[in-house]
Amino acid sequence: MEAVSNQKTQKLTQKELVKFVQSTHRIHISWRACAYELSYWTDEGLEKENLLQEVMDFLLSYKYFITVDQGWSNWDLEIYRGIWSKIQVKVCTENHGGNKRVLRVRCAPRMSQFATMAIIGYFLYTIVAIVLGMPEIGLVIFLLGVFNSAIILYQNFRLGRILYHVLEIVAKKLHLQPIHAKSTHSVVRTLQPQ
């Protein structure tokens, strides 16, 4: 899976500029955490910092804004796309002896702080309009809030999809093998020689 482009300045979301090859890695979706999870196997002793640095290098070349955790958050990277959406990336490394590692990646699309404030604002203005006896204005504000919420959800979905493809590109570059199992026990059983 590789990104292909002929132009110097480009956006990762422009389909005519960047084409992704079909992926074979199955995503595990965690509905409780509102996130998706990917797992990779390596025999080369790669740590999570290697994966995170490659993701940052790839996305910075496309002008994505990235925040790195300073040690106090429950995520490693926070990647922003526009004013509405962001995605929080958490990577953990499981050591399986020697240079054998499993890298588990959790990507959680979230609304940006601005998007959250906008949705709260729509809600408050709708309530105020109804209390002041202007239900028509309240309905218009409510419909604008629903429309904006749909845009935010769509932007979060697109950012999650883009990051999935970026992770696949970076994993291929680092020679990481995708794991299709959902639990550690099955991963260890399928990867150890029998």
Structure characteristics:
alpha+beta; TATA-Binding Protein; 7 strands; 41% helix; 23% strand
Tell me briefly what this model is.
Helix content is 41%, strand content 23%.
The CATH first-level class of the domain at 28-113 and 159-181 comes to: Alpha Beta
Total number of beta strands = 7
- Provide the residue-averaged pLDDT: 82
CATH architecture of the domain at 28-113 and 159-181: 2-Layer Sandwich
The third-level CATH topology of the domain at 28-113 and 159-181 is TATA-Binding Protein
How many helices in DSSP terms?
4
- Uncertain segments are 1-9, 183-194
Overall 3D shape: elongated
Order of helices and strands: EEHEEEEHHEH
The largest pleated sheet is described as:
7 strands, antiparallel
In angstroms, what is the radius of gyration? 20 Å
Structural class: alpha+beta
The share of residues in extended strands comes to 15-25%
Percentage of residues in helical conformation: 40-55%
Distance between the termini: 31 Å
Keywords: Membrane, Transmembrane, Transmembrane helix
Transmembrane segments: 114-131, 137-154
Chart the SSEs and their pairings:
Elements: E1 28-30, E2 35-42, H1 48-60, E3 65-68, E4 77-81, E5 85-95, E6 101-111, H2 113-131, H3 135-173, E7 177-179, H4 184-191
Structural features, described:
The protein has 194 residues and is an alpha+beta fold. It has a domain at 28-113 and 159-181: TATA-Binding Protein. 41% of the residues lie in helices and 23% in strands. It contains 4 helices and 7 strands. The protein has helices spanning 48-60, 113-131, 135-173, 184-191; strands at residues 28-30, 35-42, 65-68, 77-81, 85-95, 101-111, 177-179. Strands 1, 2, 3, 4, 5, 6 and 7 form a 7-stranded antiparallel β-sheet that branches. Helix 1 packs across helix 3 (135-173) and helix 2 (113-131) runs antiparallel to helix 3. The radius of gyration is 20 Å and the shape is elongated. The two termini are 31 Å apart.
